[in-house]
Amino acid sequence: MGFKRLSPVMRMKGRRWCSLDARTAALATALYSMLTSVLLIVVYSGRIVYNASHASLMLNLYYGIQIAYVSILCSHLVLIALSGFLILGVYKEQPSYITPWILGNIAFLALEGVCCVYSNVLRDHINKHFDLFCKAELLFLVTRIILSIPALWGVLKFCRNLHNGFSYQDPETVPL
């Protein structure tokens, strides 16, 4: 009929012990996205409070740094909501719930990169050198970008499988 019950396997380097099915990969991606967003919200909220208490040290660049941090904060709040849609889309097997997470993740990752570099350049202008937080922030951003590539690939694989007619749910029983 129109539905295939299959558990397509997403292989990583061809080894059986680290293969996932695409649905599990999409759910793991949603969890990863939510946890990193919560972590970044906590970190950047602390930075906003710290900058507010040391506003006199930042001269006239205070508002630029704060706006960059607030935009990163808002993007991660939206990403948490989109991760909820991703989980809902995975359980209901509806690509229309998954697509906003894909687009939002790509867009907000780019926005975070721009805001992170912008705030680091402004802080570098004030401090006359890159401080430890600049280096840690850029290292975490690069790590997130690298980890987002297989995460996006897993979600896209799941979405592609849904478009091709695969189902991860048990078939309905038909009473005789």
UniProtKB/TrEMBL annotation:
<feature type="transmembrane region" description="Helical">
    <location>
        <begin position="141"/>
        <end position="159"/>
    </location>
</feature>
<feature type="transmembrane region" description="Helical">
    <location>
        <begin position="20"/>
        <end position="43"/>
    </location>
</feature>
<feature type="transmembrane region" description="Helical">
    <location>
        <begin position="63"/>
        <end position="90"/>
    </location>
</feature>
<keyword id="KW-1133">Transmembrane helix</keyword>
<dbReference type="InterPro" id="IPR031720">
    <property type="entry name" value="DUF4728"/>
</dbReference>
<dbReference type="Pfam" id="PF15860">
    <property type="entry name" value="DUF4728"/>
</dbReference>
<keyword id="KW-0472">Membrane</keyword>
<feature type="transmembrane region" description="Helical">
    <location>
        <begin position="102"/>
        <end position="121"/>
    </location>
</feature>
<protein>
    <submittedName>
        <fullName>Uncharacterized protein</fullName>
    </submittedName>
</protein>
<keyword id="KW-0812">Transmembrane</keyword>
